[in-house]
Amino acid sequence: MKSLHHPHTIGLGLAIFGALLLTPDTLLMRISELDGFAMLVWRGGLSGIVYILTWMWFTLQDKQKMPAVLTINFGIIVLCQIANATFFSLAIAIAPVTVVLISVATVPIFATILSRILLGEKLSKFAITMAALVLMGLYISVLGQDATRISIDGPTLLGAVLGLGVAFSLALNFTIIRKDTTVPFILAIGFGAILAALLGALCADKLYWPPTTNFLAIAFTGIVILPISFGTLSYAARFVPSSSVSLIMLLETVFGPLWVWWGIGEAPTYAMLLGGSIVLFCLTAFLINQGRIASAHAVEPKVDLGQYPKEL
Asked: Per residue, what are the HEC states of 14-76?
């Protein structure tokens, strides 16, 4: 039972919860039928408001003083959120989704490099092997039989570069949150989301109020899914390496298409099912290995969870 209170176990649990909660996001995006910039406005605006209100709630509850927000790390997290939201919307708008998803799937690679540079953390050979197999599974799942249909042109290459930008910004976000335990990351993410929404409003050709069904879909993902999932994923980075959080986050790539299949009838290809099975098997093996590590260090004192919300 002691291992359940170990920081490593808590972090893994939070990361799994956040990743699984994020899985229906793709389905809701499709149901909303919004274009890239309109999606950025609604998702960024709604989630940004929830992030900031959540931070205010914890701050008022604990009667804390206003934290120092004019710091380099706070600014980096804000910029990461802007880049993450904006690059993804632009990439999806101009390039094949398959190319973008393959690029975004490099998050664990960037996280490993950044953790090594900024934190001095090493990744085990087992974790590196699992990450390589996961990327192979994602390649099979996302490209599959459609690989020959993708033409290498300017928009496709730009979409791939923007996807890499998304991956880098996510990895840097998790790494900075792990490095600086005093930065109010929920507030920073909220500011970033609001600024991304304003950028989307400036770039959108037309802004309008979506029909009820479409609005409910985008509102649920903006108000519930994004804040809770990314909040817990970011919070998990306080307990486990950002490379581990990034790897677990790829569960969304596996289960997202299944939600779309169930919701609007777009059946996955055999390649998607095969690749998804490889990814799921590797992530399961990775989590079992991480659980053994936590059990081996279960003698460490329990984490005082009460102190962490104060740093949101």
From this structure: HHHHHHHHHCCHHHHHHHHCCCHHHHHHHHHHHHHHHHHHHHHHHHHHHCCCCCCCCCHHHHH
